[in-house]
Amino acid sequence: MEDEGDPLIEEKAPVGDADSGAIAAAPHESVSGLLERGRASGEINAWLGEVPYADFIGVREDRDEHGRRFVLETRPHNVGNPMLPALHGGVVSAFLETAAALDTLAQTREPRLPRLVNVTVDYLSSAGVKPTYARCRLVREGRRMANVEAWAWQDDEDAPVARARLTYVLGAPA
């Protein structure tokens, strides 16, 4: 008997080449077109639509008086410890990684897809189940690498709940 697979499980797209990164273009649009469109408009939320996990955990881009920031919406499946309650550390880490990758795309001299090489996350305090914000800073952009800092907070930006240092390899210019 031949196994036809589970009809409830969607087929995943094949893993692309090394420069495919986390952001994929719609079938009718090239990756370079997607990158240029996002950079020209300054609208990072268009890129977020191409990252299914970011949508699942509830990441979106926002602006405040200090510039670009990212928001992690409150979602029941983001809870790691229902007794406190607190956000799952993996969700906080994924939020910082997503924010840093998108911010790097927006800030580099040329639109190049960043591939994560290394990340160090410091969890500074428990993240309650409420909206969480992140801001990023491109520390250094070289010819092939970028170093980024990201921090997440809830009530006060001066009291972060987590911070991350990330290193990316930058793909070929789009």
Automatic annotation (TrEMBL):
<dbReference type="InterPro" id="IPR029069">
    <property type="entry name" value="HotDog_dom_sf"/>
</dbReference>
<dbReference type="InterPro" id="IPR049449">
    <property type="entry name" value="TesB_ACOT8-like_N"/>
</dbReference>
<dbReference type="Pfam" id="PF13622">
    <property type="entry name" value="4HBT_3"/>
</dbReference>
<protein>
    <submittedName>
        <fullName>Thioesterase</fullName>
    </submittedName>
</protein>
<feature type="domain" description="Acyl-CoA thioesterase-like N-terminal HotDog">
    <location>
        <begin position="86"/>
        <end position="168"/>
    </location>
</feature>
